[in-house]
Specification:
By secondary structure, this protein is mainly α. The chain has a domain at 264-487. It contains 21 helices and two strands. The longest helix has 32 residues, at 150-181.
């Protein structure tokens, strides 16, 4: 039995991403030109992202309710698709420099993107599990893509082992939820018995599994090592794509399963506070720029979890009041993705062959050697800090406002304290770039070349960071739509 045409429309982005990934693998034995595969991957990423609009125009449940095409999935398809084609642009010169295979890299990237798309639109837990595995298995291989590097192999092994444990928790949680409710369909769990111990355990295990994907403490231990060891374009993907997709699934569960909203409030309160402090305090002592940004990613997951706590609180009081907290999460994920992609793209180029130049000392005097690059990296760091005229400012502002409106005053205070802690290590990098003299060897080196594709990524992320920092209204108005999640 063939699926209905309307069902095909609603998963068209995933079909295109997977199709181009398979095509790259099939053509790999016959074509050796890197530019061909870069072009193929770019077209595939762009076509899948454009197809998300077609899926949005045919909104509704697909495949008997397994997936849901709506404004929410449209937003996340655009987000992960944009992350994918920006990583494609930035990765080409890196693959050339490190002499890594092209076709397999782009195929894995597209498969991972398709998995993220499934996660964002899943309306059923086993479908979400399939999306999670599509994304995770591709990510494990990408983390160890520099096969000659011991650090890369170590990062892949750690990611695989810990990710397997997290997946087991997630799958066992699904089994317990099914045992309690008799269904894995999210929209059919509204009548679930909220006093069921089985349901509470199941939801707790699902939260643990997704907590690993978003790098929430205490499930964050893999993040610094994996971010440091993985190829830097892959690190850029990890920091933006899978995290956004996992948060998308959490939000969809919130919107459709009242029991989750009821049980997860204090869990998110504690997770948010713990994650913010673990991330920011860990970043204070880092001298490796990739590890510093990894701990920064943990801290920002904590900020997003503040909005989740606000969502759970508001949803218990009045579901209509939860909309600003949903909007805060979505806008923050967008601004965060732009900034992390830009920052890691710069780190990738400045790292040099074998990624040897990753110490903060290697950035000393960067403002004199490459002033435009130093200015761009400074903007990204200031956006992560949350300064005005950057997208990060409105991201943090909306989350802080959601926390205050939810009467989560202590959580808002902890968020403010952590923002002050974060200012130290973000400004420290800027001080090193602008107020420290470079070593004699670094001063003698020629400026690092930034190819056209890499420069395009920096231009897009730079402009986006400023544009959404001064004019966030179009994005906010879209994600405040009353039918954001299709109901």
């Amino acid at each position: 039995m063939f699926p209905r045409t309307i069902d095909i429309y609603r998963v068209l982005p995933e079909l295109i991403w997977c199709g181009f990934g398979v095509l790259a693998m099939l053509l790999q034995p016959f074509v050796r030109n890197r530019h061909f595969f870069t072009f193929l991957a770019f077209v595939g990423a762009l076509a899948g992202t454009a197809a998300s609009y077609f899926a949005f125009r045919h909104a509704g449940p697909g495949f008997s309710g397994l997936v849901q095409s709506d404004s929410f999935s449209f937003f996340f398809h655009l987000l992960v698709g944009a992350v994918a084609f920006l990583v494609v642009l930035a990765a080409g010169p890196y693959l050339d420099r490190e002499r890594l295979p092209f076709a397999e890299f782009y195929a894995l990237l597209l498969f991972a993107t398709a998995g993220m798309g499934v996660l964002a639109s899943a309306q059923e837990l086993l479908t979400a599990f399939i999306g999670l595995e599509m994304s995770s298995i591709s990510s494990y291989i990408l983390a160890g893509y520099r096969r000659d590097s011991l650090k890369s192999s170590e990062s892949a092994m750690k990611y695989f082992l810990l990710g397997s444990f997290a997946t087991a928790f997630f799958l066992y949680g699904i089994a317990l939820v099914y045992g309690s409710t008799g269904t894995t369909m999210l929209d059919k769990m509204a009548a679930a018995d909220m006093s069921s111990t089985l349901l509470k355990l199941g939801l707790a295990m699902i939260l643990i599994g997704l907590g690993f994907k978003v790098a929430a403490a205490p499930f964050q231990v893999w993040t610094p090592d994996v971010y440091e060891g993985a190829p830097t374009p892959v690190t850029a993907l990890f920091s933006a794509g899978p995290k956004a997709a996992a948060f998308a699934l959490l939000l969809r569960i919130f919107a459709t399963v009242p029991a989750a909203t009821h049980f997860w409030f204090w869990a998110f309160w504690v997770l948010a506070a713990l994650t913010m402090f673990v991330g920011n305090l860990g970043a204070l002592v880092q001298t490796n720029i990739k590890r510093l940004l990894a701990y920064s990613s943990i801290a920002h997951a904590g900020y997003i979890l503040v909005a989740f706590a606000a969502v759970t609180f508001m949803a218990q009081e009045n579901s209509a009041e939860a909309a600003p907290a949903y909007a805060a999460v979505l806008f923050y994920l967008l601004s965060y993705a732009l900034v992390k992609l830009g920052a890691f793209t710069i780190v990738s180029q400045l790292g040099g062959s074998g990624e040897k130049n990753l110490s903060l000392h290697d950035y000393a005097g960067l403002s004199e050697r490459q002033p435009v690059v130093a200015a761009a990296l400074s903007l990204y760091l200031l956006s992560l800090l949350g300064l005005p005229v950057t997208a990060g400012f409105f991201g943090k502002f909306y989350i802080f406002k959601a926390a205050v409106n939810s009467h989560l005053v202590w959580l808002a205070v902890l968020m403010a304290i952590n923002s002050v802690i974060g200012a130290y290590y973000y400004l420290r990098v800027i001080v090193v770039m602008y107020m420290r003299e470079p070593s004699a060897e670094a001063a003698a080196l020629a400026p690092v070349r930034f190819p056209v594709g890499v420069s395009a990524v920096l231009l897009i992320t730079f402009v986006g960071t400023i544009l959404f920092g001064v004019y966030p209204n179009p994005v906010i108005n879209f994600i405040l739509r009353p039918n954001l999640l299709g109901h």
